[in-house]
Amino acid sequence: MPKFINTLVAMLIVSTISFSQKKDLSPGEFAIYKGLELRSVKYTTDEAKVKEKIQLIQDYVASQDSLKSVHYARAYNYLATLKSYLGSEPDSVSHYAKISFEKHPEWFCKEVIPWQEKSESPDLENVIQPYYLGDSELVLYALMRKFCVQNDWLVEQEKAEEVPSNSEYYDGLKAIEVNSKKETGIFAQVDWESQNRKDEENRVALDELFEAHGFPTRQAVTHDGLVIAFKVLANSHDCEWNKKWIPRIMDHIKEFDSPGIVAYMFDRNFHKEEGRCKDQIAFVEELVEILEPNLVNAMKLNNFLE
């Protein structure tokens, strides 16, 4: 096990200083003492303990007349983390995360986002809970990361070049990409009759690839290939076909670098006034039932049912 993980695990099991003994701590410093303890799996399953800690930090923040912005940021991030453990208050998680980010975006970018990445390490599975942004707030997380990188507060790690494990599948998807290029006529207007025909051809081709190889996972076809397959769905006006592919995409949503594009697809399909498939209410209701609550919240599916 890597050295930093040994250190982290050791910190998790060390007794932390109680709140009553540290009345003089800022909320941010208090969060540092208690944060690792509260991310431990054994604590996140104790609802009463989590609620007690939420009340403690809320009372402490309320008792202060003035705090440094970074201390507010730490405190509200801590509250967002705790709220995520309850599982029943997704709006509160988003609310506190946004406040934390707004109070001190530079701190959030340099401290919280890297914690998110570390917490998703396979070596920490069943040791600590993944940080709340990766699961419950996929779209918000992607937007925050983008802002952080743009402001040079988060350095993107160089990614090794992805190589498809199934070159035949990848080549088939690249052929779909070539066929997807829009046909333009006079004055560069899109020839929609031709384009709709191409979209139908691409749906047929993707179905054939799926029958032969299964879902186009990132390992099989790289992120590039995965996005090509997704774009076939994003461009499709065939609601019955879309209903077949949407659950498949949702089963693999964590493989996307930017889950926000999937949320945008839902809006294009099911927007109550302008959605292509706005009459497919029963299908949206089914998705709400079968998907994890965090995904329902991240994709804002309930908005299409109100």
Report what the structure shows:
The protein has three domains: 3-150, no CATH class; 162-236, no CATH class; 243-306, no CATH class. The chain is 66% helix and 0% strand. It is built from 16 helices and no strands. The longest helix has 22 residues, at 192-213. The protein is elongated, with a radius of gyration of 23 Å. Mean pLDDT is 78; it is low at 1-23 and 25-38.
Q: Which helices and strands appear, and what pairs or packs with what?
A:
Layout (H helix, E strand, L loop, with lengths): L2 H11 L13 H13 L1 H4 L2 H16 L6 H18 L3 H14 L1 H15 L12 H5 L1 H13 L16 H14 L11 H22 L4 H17 L4 H12 L9 H11 L10 H10 L2 H6 L8
Order of helices and strands: HHHHHHHHHHHHHHHH
Distance between the termini: 49 Å
The number of distinct helices, counting runs of at least 4 residues, comes to 16
What does the average pLDDT come to?
78
Helix content: 55-70%
Strand % is under 5%
| Low-pLDDT stretches | 1-23, 25-38
Rg measurement, Å: 23 Å
What is this structure, in a nutshell?
The chain has 306 residues and is mainly α. The chain has helices at residues 3-13, 27-39, 41-44, 47-62, 69-86, 90-103, 105-119, 132-136, 138-150, 167-180, 192-213, 218-234, 239-250, 260-270, 281-290, 293-298.
For the structure shown, list the relevant keywords.
306 residues; mainly alpha; 16 helices; elongated; disordered N terminus
